Amino acid sequence: TMDLTALRATNGTLVARTTGNDPALFGPPTQARAGEFGSVVVRLKLEHPAGQSFKDTAQLFWRTSRLPESEASSARFEVVGDGQWHEYNIPVAANRRWRGVITRLRLDPGNQAGVQVHLDSIRLSR
Predict the structure, then answer these.
(1) Quick one: 6 exposed, middle or buried, by C-beta within 10 A (0-12, 13-18, 19+)?
(2) CB atoms within 10 A of CB 61
(3) Pairwise CA distance, residues 61 & 75, whole Å
(4) How buried is 32 (Cβ within 10 angstroms: 0-12 exposed, 13-18 middle, 19+ buried)?
(5) Is residue 17 exposed (0-12), middle (13-18) or buried (19+ Cβ within 10 Å)?
(6) Per-residue pLDDT at 3
(7) Who's near 96: CB < 8 A, 6+ residues apart?
(8) Predicted confidence (pLDDT) per residue in 65-79, tens digit
(9) Model-level pTM greater than 0.90?
(10) CA 76, 3, 70, 120 torsion: positive or negative?
């Protein structure tokens, strides 16, 4: 992790609090053929400590057997911080760097400190 604290598993979800403006969750090593999947689906809940609703931008990065994770191998998407679960469908196949064998995913759930992050799942989707 990066810019996250109090990381724990609770009721089947990963929970943490952001401590800076570049929080990141790094996934485990994987071996998935990019051509078999057109999108990544993230189920996420974000909560502001004061209970305020907010909008932010999250970012999904990927690494392949030939390319490191970088801005070029990523996709940004808008997230809502309202304490509710949201499922975000990220069309990664639209990026020309989504190719080859995907070896790791990284999720930056937003750009704000002090946000409670609840991650239920990240899955590859056809």
Answers:
(1) exposed
(2) 20
(3) 7
(4) middle
(5) middle
(6) 96
(7) none
(8) 999 999 999 999 999
(9) yes
(10) negative
Residues present in the chain in total: 126
Structure-token match 């809940």, residue found: 45
Helix (H) or strand (E) holding 25: strand 25-26
Q: Which residue type occupies 105?
A: L
Q: Among all chains, which residue has been given the structure tokens 């974000």?
A: 46
CA-nearest of 32, 35, 56, 61 to 46 is 56
Report how far residue 99's alpha carbon sits from residue 37's, in angstroms, rounded to the nearest whole number. Answer: 10
Instruction: Give the tokens for residue 51.
Output: 């209970």
Distance CA 71, CA 74 (A): 5
113: which residues sit within 8 A by CB, 6+ positions away?
3, 18, 19, 20, 21
1: pLDDT strictly greater than 90: no
Tell me the chain's radius of gyration from C-alpha atoms.
14
